[in-house]
Design brief:
82 residues, alpha+beta, 3-stranded antiparallel sheet, flat
């Protein structure tokens, strides 16, 4: 294997890239209704699998991480205000 693609460890857990709605809600510490509101308001983008009206909806973990990063309020005083 090449250095940029090391061999996976046997039985290593796979970190999901696409999360189900309940997983995304847990990841953000929200209720299902709270996550639905963020999706409806366009704050959290979704991936629709299937292309139909009743498609399965998934959320990219990278989008949740970007939302968290963009929502951080930096410390203005104290030891973390560097």
């Amino acid at each position: 294997m090449s250095p940029e693609h090391p061999a996976p460890e046997p039985y290593a857990p796979i970190r999901p890239v696409l999360l189900e709605k309940w997983q995304a809600a847990v990841y953000l510490g929200l209720t299902d209704d709270g996550l639905d509101r963020l999706i409806r308001d366009g704050v959290v983008p979704v991936v629709k699998l299937g292309g139909r009206l009743k498609s399965r909806v998934r959320i990219r973990q990278s989008d949740l991480d970007a939302l968290i990063e963009a929502s951080l309020t930096r410390a203005t005083s104290g030891p973390l205000a560097k």
